[in-house]
Amino acid sequence: MSIQQSDPEIFQAIQDEQKRQLEGMELIASENYQSEAVLQAQSSVFANKYSE
């Protein structure tokens, strides 16, 4: 089951944040953008190792 199906509100929040990051210019020094490869790795089975 996808996140869109299981929690539409969270899915929409993710979509809104992605749009903000793609279309906006943030001037906050501590805000970093991860590459697509890093995002994919974080949402892989390796994420289960840190869900204590």
Describe the structure.
There is one protein chain. This protein is 52% helix and 0% strand. With 52 residues, the chain is an all-alpha fold. The protein has one domain (3-50). InterPro entries: PyrdxlP-dep_Trfase, PyrdxlP-dep_Trfase_major, PyrdxlP-dep_Trfase_small, Ser_HO-MeTrfase-like, SHMT-like_dom. It is an enzyme of class 2 (transferase). Keywords: Methyltransferase, Pyridoxal phosphate, Transferase.
User: Describe the biggest sheet?
Assistant: none
Q: How many helices?
A: 3
- Roughly what percent helix? 40-55%
What is the terminal-to-terminal distance? 22 Å
Spans of 5+ residues with little confidence (pLDDT < 50)? Answer: none
Oligomer: single chain
Mean pLDDT: 85
Structural class: mainly alpha
H/E element order: HHH
Coarse morphology? flat
- Our estimate of the beta-strand percent is under 5%
- Cα Rg: 13 Å
Number of domains: 1
